[in-house]
Design a protein that fits this description.
single chain, Nuclear Transport Factor 2, Chain: A
Length: 155
């Protein structure tokens, strides 16, 4: 039986793992001169994965939202319910954005970085920086997401 303290410990371990994944995502950001060009089909596929996950969040469909994440995120979060709970409590701007604008994705080796501008329910602007990789060489899966305040204007 889990006690409150063991739930709290689990939450903090999940949170720490998420912060480490975010740090890794920033380290993988391509330098402007190193960015590779994605095919139009890949650009469309990357965007579709993120849009589908946002649509799943809008419906509180934890299993569908969790289906778009890569194995590293699945392992860190443990379950779709935990994943949705973390997104709902820690990333409300992703959980329920009021406006979304996709910027041009960039590729470096086998990682794609997709920047997405978002407005939250309060009208605050955010920049979500998603990292994605191909799962088994076929479909794109989200490997991480870092969210920072967006002081610039929306695209």
């Amino acid at each position: 039986m889990r006690t409150y303290s063991s739930h709290l410990l689990h939450f903090y371990l999940v949170r720490l793992a998420g912060l480490l994944a975010a740090a890794a995502c920033f380290l993988m950001l391509p330098a402007p001169g190193n960015a590779a060009t994605l095919s139009p089909a890949d650009e469309k596929s990357v965007r579709a994965v993120i849009q589908a996950q946002l649509a799943a969040f809008a419906k509180d469909d934890a299993h569908k939202a969790f289906s778009y994440v890569a194995p590293n995120v699945r392992e860190t979060m443990g379950s779709a319910a935990v994943f949705l709970a973390v997104v709902r409590s820690e990333y409300p701007m992703i959980y329920r954005p009021t406006l979304v604008a996709f910027l041009k994705p960039e590729a470096k080796q086998n990682v794609v970085i997709q920047r997405v501008q978002m407005l939250d329910a309060s009208g605050d602007a955010w920049l979500a920086i998603y990292s994605l990789q191909r799962s088994k060489g076929k479909v794109w899966r989200i490997t991480g997401c870092v969210v920072v305040e967006n002081k610039g204007r929306m695209a």
